[in-house]
From TrEMBL, chain A:
Belongs to the binding-protein-dependent transport system permease family. It is a multi-pass membrane protein. Residues 70-293 form the ABC transmembrane type-1 domain. InterPro entries: ABC_transporter_permease (IPR051393), MetI-like (IPR000515), MetI-like_sf (IPR035906). Signal peptide: none annotated. Its main location: membrane. GO terms for cellular component: plasma membrane. GO terms for biological process: transmembrane transport. It is found in: Cell membrane. It holds the Pfam family BPD_transp_1. Keywords: Cell membrane, Membrane, Transmembrane, Transmembrane helix, Transport. This is Carbohydrate ABC transporter membrane protein 1, CUT1 family. The lineage of its organism: Bacteria, Pseudomonadati, Pseudomonadota, Alphaproteobacteria, Rhodobacterales.
Automatic annotation (TrEMBL), chain B:
InterPro entries: Bact_solute-bd_prot1 (IPR050490), SBP (IPR006059), SBP_1_CS (IPR006061). Keywords: Signal, Transport. Belongs to the bacterial solute-binding protein 1 family. It holds the Pfam family SBP_bac_1. It is found in: Periplasm. Residues 1-22 form the signal peptide. Part of a binding-protein-dependent transport system for a sugar. One of its GO terms (cellular component) is periplasmic space. One of its GO terms (biological process) is transmembrane transport. This is Probable sugar-binding periplasmic protein.
Length: 304, 417
C-alpha cells in the first residue's frame, strides 16, 4: 500500500494565518506574561518571580487601586448586563414583529453608533453632557426638569454609571443584531403550533422564543464580559488616563495603561504594567471558563 | 513599531551624514516642540548660522506624546541627534544616568543661570548639570480688563482683596467670576495649588525643606492652600465638576468669565482668541507687603547626546543657547515661554511682559512636586491633582488631604519617614 502523501497544501494555506497570529497575538501575550515576572533594579532587568503580583495584591499603595479598578470594572459590566442586553433583546423582539414599519431604518439607526470610533462617541457625549455648552441642560430646562441636571461626568458618584450608559448606547446594536438573527431563524411552524395550543402574543415570546434564543444570549453575555474587562478607550477618551474624578472611573484597562506607559511625572513601569495585564488575562480566562464549562454545557438546546 | 522607528532613525542618520559630507558640521536637534518648527527654521537657526557659518543645524521634532518613547529607542539604537531637548526632572535625569547625556557643568555659559533655573536638569546633589535651561512658564491670574473696568475693579494684591473682587463679580452676575474646572484635575493642581501655594510655603524655602524632610505635607503651610482652594468653588461656573480645560479656556476667551487662573503658556493662544484687553496679576499674598513668591516653572532645556560625533560644535551651540541673544529671540517669538537666563530680557508682548516682570519683585520657585518627590508610588504629582480637585469640590477636608498625601509620600520617601 502506498504511504499517504503528506498534505503540503494544508501547511501552505495555514501558514500565513498562523504566522501572523503568532507574531502579533501569541508571542506578545506570552512575552507580556514573562515580563510580569521581572523587575528593573539599577538599570538591570532581574527575575523576581511572582513578586510583582504580590505587590499588586498586597502592597497598600497598589492593592486599593487594583481592587478599586476591578470593582469599577464589575459595575461597568453589571450595568451592561442589566441595561444593554435586556434592551437589546427587547429591541430585537420589536424589530422582528412582522407588522412593524420602517424596521430596516430603525435597525440601521440603532446599529450605527457601534461603528463609530470611541473617540467620537466620548467627545460627542462629553459635549452633550457639558454643563456649559451641552444640550442636555437646555433640553431638561425645556421640559422644566433643569433641577435634575448635574455635571454627571464630574461627580464621583455618577461618573462611572454615566460612562457605562454611554457605552450601552454605543453598543446596544450588537445584542440587538445577534438576537434579531436568532429570532428570525425560529421557524414559523413552531409559533403556529403554539398558537393552536393557545400560546400567543407576549406569552409566545416568553414561552417559545426566549428559550430558543437563550444560547445567543449566553454568547452575548460572554462577549459583553470580555469586552468590558478589556475596555479602555471610552474612559480614556472621556476622562483621560487618570480616570477622574478621583479614580472613580478607573477600570483595569486605564490602570494598566497608566502603570505601563507612565503618566505625566509617573514614569512607566512595564513590569508592573505586565502584571496588571496578566491579572486581566486571568480574570477574563476564569470568566470565560466558568461560562463555557459551568453554563454553556448545561444549557438546553432545542433542535429546530 | 520599533522596527519602524529604527528605519526612520536610520534614514534620518543617513540624510544627516550625507549633509555632513557637503558641509563642515551638521548638528541634529531632537525635540518634542513641533509647534516651534517655524520659529526654529525662520529665526533661531538663521541667527545661529550667521554667527557660526561652519555649523549647520537640523531641527527634527516629533509629536509631544511620543517624544520620550521615540527618543529612548533612538538613543538605544545609537541613532539619536547630537542635541537633545530635555524634559524637566526625572525623564532627563534617567537619560543622564543611563549615560546618554553629557555633564555640561563646565560650560562657561552655565553661570548665566540661577540655581532654581538649573534645578530641573541637575543630579539630586546638584553636582552635575546636564542640560542648558531654555524656557520656563510662570503662573498667575489673567483677567478681562474690560470686565474689570466695567465693574470698577482693581487688580487684587492680597487674598482679602482677591475674594472681595470675586464677590463683586458674582454679585453683578454678568460674568462667571473665575474660569476653572475640576474635570481634568491637573488644572486644579497646576493652576490652583501650585499657583497660589508658593506664597504659603515661602517658595524655595518650603520646597527644599519638604525634599529634605524638614517639613511635612500636613504642616499648615502645605494644607492651607487647599483650604483657600475650597473657597474658590462658589465662584466657579455652574457644573465646574465636569468642566474641562478647553472649556475653561473658551469660557474666558469668549468673555464669559472675568478671571482665569493661568500659566503663561496661554498668552499667545489667548492673544489670538480674545477680543478684549487682558491683564495679569500675580498670586495674591496674605497681607499687604508680604514677600511674594511665584511659580516660575522650568519646562524646556537642551543637552548634548553623549554619543555625538561633534562635541565641540554641539558645545558651541549650547553656549549660544545660554547667551542673552538666544533669550531675546526665543522669548519674543514664543510669548509666555520665558528664557531663564539671569540677564533680563525685553519682551515685546505686554501680557507676557507683565508675567515676566514679577521675577523682579518676587522670589521664583518651581512646582513643589516635580523634583525628586514624584519618583515613587504613589506618585505625588498625580495625587496632588486628585487632592486639589477634591479640595475645590469639597469632597475631603484640607487636613484629610494633607494627611493622605503625607502618608503616600512617607511610604516610599526616606527623608519623610
Amino acid at each position: 500500500m502506498q504511504k499517504p502523501r503528506f498534505r503540503w497544501h494544508l501547511v501552505v494555506f495555514l501558514a500565513p494565518a498562523v504566522l501572523v497570529y503568532t507574531a502579533v497575538m501569541i508571542f506578545p501575550l506570552f512575552n507580556t506574561l514573562r515580563l510580569a515576572l521581572y523587575s528593573k533594579v539599577d538599570q538591570e532587568r532581574v527575575f523576581v518571580g511572582l513578586q510583582n503580583f504580590q505587590t499588586l495584591f498586597g502592597d497598600p499603595n497598589w492593592a486599593p487601586a487594583f481592587w478599586n479598578a476591578l470593582g469599577n470594572n464589575f459595575w461597568f459590566f453589571i450595568v451592561h448586563m442589566l441595561v444593554q442586553n435586556p434592551i437589546g433583546v427587547a429591541l430585537a423582539a420589536i424589530l422582528s414583529h412582522p407588522r412593524l414599519r420602517f424596521a430596516a431604518l430603525y435597525r440601521s439607526a440603532i446599529f450605527i453608533p457601534t461603528i463609530l470610533s470611541f473617540v467620537i462617541v466620548g467627545f460627542a457625549w462629553k459635549l452633550i453632557l457639558s454643563p456649559i455648552w451641552g444640550i442636555a441642560p437646555s433640553m431638561l430646562d425645556a421640559v422644566g426638569l433643569k433641577s435634575l441636571f448635574a455635571p454627571w461626568l464630574g461627580k464621583e458618584e455618577y461618573a462611572l454609571t454615566t460612562l457605562a450608559l454611554i457605552s450601552v448606547w454605543q453598543f446596544v446594536g450588537i445584542p440587538m443584531m445577534l438576537i434579531y438573527a436568532a429570532l428570525l431563524s425560529i421557524p414559523e411552524e413552531i409559533l403556529e403550533a403554539g398558537e393552536i395550543d393557545g400560546v400567543t402574543g407576549i406569552s409566545a415570546f416568553w414561552k417559545i422564543k426566549l428559550p430558543l434564543i437563550l444560547p445567543s444570549i449566553g454568547i452575548i453575555s460572554i462577549l459583553t464580559f470580555v469586552g468590558n474587562f478589556n475596555a479602555f478607550d471610552l474612559i480614556y477618551a472621556a476622562q483621560g488616563a487618570l480616570a477622574g474624578p478621583d479614580f472613580s472611573t478607573d477600570i483595569l484597562g486605564t490602570f494598566m495603561y497608566r502603570t505601563f506607559f507612565g503618566f505625566q511625572l509617573q514614569l512607566g513601569d512595564p513590569h508592573m504594567g505586565s502584571a496588571i495585564a496578566g491579572a486581566m488575562f486571568a480574570i477574563i480566562l476564569v470568566g470565560v471558563c466558568i461560562y463555557l464549562f459551568g453554563i454553556q454545557t448545561r444549557m438546553r438546546r432545542y433542535q429546530l | 513599531m520599533k522596527r519602524n522607528f529604527m528605519l526612520i532613525a536610520l534614514a534620518t542618520t543617513a540624510l544627516t551624514a550625507s549633509g555632513a559630507a557637503a558641509q563642515d558640521v551638521t548638528l541634529t536637534i531632537e525635540s518634542w516642540r513641533n509647534d516651534d518648527l517655524a520659529l526654529w527654521q525662520d529665526k533661531i537657526i538663521p541667527a545661529f548660522e550667521a554667527e557660526h557659518p561652519d555649523i549647520k543645524l537640523n531641527f527634527t521634532p516629533s509629536a509631544p506624546a511620543e517624544y520620550n518613547a521615540v527618543l529612548n529607542s533612538k538613543l538605544d539604537a545609537g541613532s539619536a541627534g547630537d542635541l537633545i531637548t530635555c524634559r524637566p526632572f526625572d525623564a532627563s535625569l534617567a537619560l543622564y544616568e543611563a549615560g546618554h547625556l553629557t555633564d555640561l557643568s563646565d560650560l562657561d555659559a552655565m553661570s548665566n543661570f540661577s540655581d532654581v533655573a538649573k534645578s530641573a536638569w541637575q543630579t539630586d546633589d546638584g553636582q552635575a548639570t546636564f542640560c542648558v535651561p531654555m524656557a520656563s512658564v510662570i503662573h498667575g491670574f489673567i483677567y478681562n480688563k474690560d470686565a474689570f473696568a466695567e465693574l470698577g475693579l482693581e487688580e487684587p494684591q492680597t487674598e482679602d482683596e482677591f475674594f472681595a473682587v470675586l464677590d463683586k463679580i458674582k454679585e453683578d452676575g454678568s460674568y462667571t467670576p473665575m474660569a476653572m474646572g475640576t474635570n481634568d484635575q491637573w488644572e486644579a493642581a497646576t493652576m490652583g495649588y501650585n499657583n497660589i501655594g508658593p506664597n504659603y510655603w515661602n517658595g524655595e524655602e518650603g520646597r527644599q525643606a519638604l525634599i529634605a524632610g524638614e517639613q511635612k505635607l500636613t504642616d499648615p503651610q502645605w494644607v492651607e492652600p487647599y483650604a483657600t482652594l475650597a473657597k474658590w468653588a462658589p465662584y466657579l461656573g455652574d457644573g465646574f465638576e465636569a468642566q474641562t480645560y478647553p472649556d475653561s479656556q473658551n469660557l474666558f476667551t469668549l468673555g464669559r468669565a472675568a478671571i482665569y487662573p493661568a500659566g503663561s503658556w496661554e498668552v499667545s493662544g489667548f492673544n489670538a482668541q480674545a477680543d478684549f484687553e487682558m491683564g495679569a496679576f500675580k498670586p495674591p499674598v496674605k497681607a499687604a507687603g508680604d514677600t511674594c513668591y511665584i511659580s516660575d516653572h522650568t519646562d524646556i532645556g537642551i543637552g548634548m547626546n553623549a554619543a555625538t560625533e561633534h562635541p565641540e560644535a554641539a558645545r558651541t551651540f549650547l553656549a549660544w543657547v545660554a547667551s542673552p541673544e538666544f533669550a531675546e529671540i526665543f522669548g519674543n517669538a514664543l510669548p509666555g515661554f520665558f528664557p531663564l537666563s539671569s540677564t533680563p530680557v525685553e519682551i515685546q508682548d505686554p501680557l507676557a511682559n507683565e508675567f515676566v516682570s514679577w521675577r523682579e519683585e518676587c522670589e521664583s520657585t518651581i512646582r513643589s512636586t516635580y523634583q525628586i518627590l514624584s519618583r515613587g508610588t504613589p506618585n505625588l504629582e498625580n495625587e496632588t491633582w486628585g487632592a486639589s480637585a477634591a479640595a475645590i469640590k469639597g469632597t475631603a477636608t484640607p487636613e484629610e488631604l494633607g494627611q493622605k498625601l503625607q502618608d503616600g509620600l512617607a511610604s516610599w520617601y526616606a527623608p519623610q519617614q
